[in-house]
Write a structure and sequence with these properties.
The structure is a homodimer of 340-residue chains. By secondary structure, the first copy, chain A, is of the alpha/beta class. Chain A folds into two domains: 2-148 and 289-339, Medium-chain alcohol dehydrogenases, catalytic domain (Quinone Oxidoreductase, Chain A, domain 1), CATH 3.90.180.10; 153-285, 3-Layer(aba) Sandwich (Rossmann fold). The first copy, chain A, is built from twelve helices and 19 strands. In chain A, the strands form four sheets. In chain A, strands 3, 5, 6, 9, 10, 18 and 19 form a seven-stranded mixed sheet that branches. In chain A, strands 13-12-11-14-15-17 form a six-stranded parallel sheet, sandwiched between helices. Chain A has a three-stranded antiparallel sheet with strand order 2-1-4, covered by helices on one side. In chain A, strand 18 (314-317), helix 12 (321-329) and strand 19 (336-339) form a beta-alpha-beta unit. In chain A, helix 4 runs antiparallel to helix 11. The model of chain A has no long low-confidence stretch (mean pLDDT 97). Chain A binds chain B through residues 93-94, 97-99, 101-102, 104, 159, 230-232, 242, 244, 247, 255-257, 262, 265-274, 276-287, 289, and chain B through 93-94, 97-99, 101-102, 104, 159, 230-232, 242, 244, 247, 255-257, 262, 265-274, 276-287, 289. Strand 16 (270-272) of chain A pairs antiparallel with strand 16 of chain B, so a sheet runs across the interface. Chains A, B: Residues 175-288 form the Alcohol dehydrogenase-like C-terminal domain. Chains A, B: Keywords: Metal-binding, Oxidoreductase, Zinc. Chains A, B: Residues 25-132 form the Alcohol dehydrogenase-like N-terminal domain. Chains A, B: Belongs to the zinc-containing alcohol dehydrogenase family.
């Protein structure tokens, strides 16, 4: 089968590899019908994360179940399914509390790779959610987005306690930040301030529900958010980048007693305890428990209440995956869909 | 009037100073009827915080209103009152959201000093809460505790989302940690694990509601908490120390999706973003908004439902304040009450 493999930073190839197969009796194998490239795939691409050996890429997926292990009960061959970027049993206390991304049996799908013709999905009953009916092309894109970027943006908005009467600031205008705006709007936020300098992303932010755009960054960006909020700062801030600067901006833009939901994979961030202490904001972040939200997100998508799939602005056949990585690295594309 | 003044680390004296007076029209002056020494007073005493010049000490108080400014409306001369260690207007959006310790007009009482015969209380209407009836000697001690250590422990328990069905771990066995146990119990926690090595404090912890004692610290302490909680970790953890070790212990002892309420004044703490990201716990801490809880706490105390005043295990006249500092520094006393 074809699979995208990163051989070194900047060196991504579509290789021919052994077909995915059931290994554990709780596994399923799906025929991937669409995959995509994630902002987090750029960390190794840019050499910020090590690439020790050729690594299978991709952790977002929609597909049709091809084969199931002996212990799989709830998912059947032929089902159209979506799952999160973390496989989870969905039964342990951590899963039951809604934190499936930290399941005691968690398997990171990125270590398996879903930018491929087929993918092995561990803990299939816990991980996969069946899609009812037959999605349109637009719905298929949105379902693929639900697998990570939508689910992650949604978690960030929930973690930031976005809701009625709230002013939400969003740091980061990648796919996750943009879909955090969609989530905040859907959760009833009164005002949504997108921090973005790119006109195409500003447009999408506005389309998803942003009421204000702030182009300033760092201390200036914080000052502007305070100016827009009567000097107080945002009630809720979504952080969707993962750098020292973006975390400082998110915490600084939030009023005391407010909430920061941070989902940008943290790279080189150090928080001073004393700054955090006197900021007096709630911090919740980490790998998003997308599985918690999938049933609701699938329903919202299949009933055309949300259209997160519009974040895909470049579509390439899997053979040309390398071009997709390059386009995202150079910010010529927000989110690249790979067809199979 | 007499006032406790720190002249240098380790050098605390009871000096004769000018009597407190109304400065702003929103001030009140109270005759302090009891004051006390706080664990946080030990930071400068130990030289961990600078003492640039002679500094008035104390930020906890109960007293009788002696004089009010022209704009004070809700508090009258003769009222017996308790207030928080942060003066607040109680009307700004931050106060209204329950974060009075970060009021836009906040005044830290520690900068004014309440280990004295009289104290100026800024923003009297917002800061002070009238005590109904005449407290007994035991109730007076408890009301004094409400001013900081009880209110702070209570906030920590609320921030950690202690409640029915929850297992709460408590890092720190000073007065705040101990009263965090009392708060967690009162909030309905099912199981409360006190981390303590001192038998006298373990006894008080048990009296306040601790169901388990863990003597191990650091990684061993974390392992023990996990062992006691089916491998998951605590749902809720109260951090009441403020060091790198105690924060690491608190975060490590908490299960993914759990909550850490941290109220130990942070000294030299640095949190690695990546560790925090993958811990996936909620963090909320800072100077406790004691004012939020005061009406409820005063009611619980005056109806003898809680007895936090038992944390005071040494009572000294204000002239002998220096002995009290020494006793707390040497851990011979948990909490020292100063009589006037």
């Amino acid at each position: 089968m074809r699979a995208v493999v990163m051989h070194a930073p900047g060196d991504v190839r579509t290789d021919e590899v052994a077909k995915a197969a059931v290994v554990e009796p709780t596994d399923a194998v799906i025929r991937v019908t669409a995959a995509c490239i994630c902002g987090s795939d750029l960390w190794p691409y840019r050499g910020i994360e090590n690439v020790d050996r050729p690594s299978p890429m991709g952790h977002e997926y929609i597909g049709v179940v091809e084969e199931i292990g002996d212990e799989v009960k709830d998912i059947a061959v032929g089902d159209l399914v979506v799952g999160s970027f973390v496989a989870s049993d969905n039964t342990c206390e951590i899963c039951q509390a809604g934190f499936q991304s930290r399941c005691v049996h968690q398997v990171m799908m990125g270590a398996i790779g879903t930018q491929a013709d087929y993918a092995r999905i561990p803990l299939a009953d816990g991980t996969l959610v069946k899609v009812p009916g037959t999605p349109t092309a637009a719905q298929t894109k949105s379902l693929l987005a639900a697998s990570d970027v939508l689910g992650t943006g949604w978690f960030a908005a929930v973690a930031a306690e976005a809701g009625p009467g709230k002013t939400v600031a969003v740091v980061g205008d990648g796919a996750v930040g943009l879909l955090g705006i969609l989530a905040a709007k859907r959760l009833g936020a009164e005002r949504i301030i997108a921090m973005s300098r790119h006109t195409d992303r500003q447009d999408l932010a506005t389309q998803f529900g942003a009421t204000d755009i702030v182009e300033e960054r760092g201390e200036e960006g914080i000052a502007r958010i305070k100016e827009l909020t009567g000097g107080y700062g945002a009630h809720s801030t979504i952080e969707a980048v993962g750098t020292q600067e973006s975390m400082a901006q998110a915490i600084g833009a939030t009023r005391p007693g407010g909430h920061v939901g941070y989902v940008g994979v943290s790279h080189g961030v150090e928080l001073q305890g004393q700054d955090l202490f006197f900021a007096t904001v709630s911090l919740l972040g980490g790998p998003a428990p997308v599985r918690r939200f999938l049933p609701e997100l699938i329903d919202l998508i299949m009933t055309d209440q949300i259209d997160p799939g519009v974040v895909f602005d470049l579509e390439l056949p899997i053979e040309r995956a390398a071009e997709g990585y390059k386009a995202m690295d150079e910010r010529r594309a927000t989110k690249v869909l790979l067809t199979l």
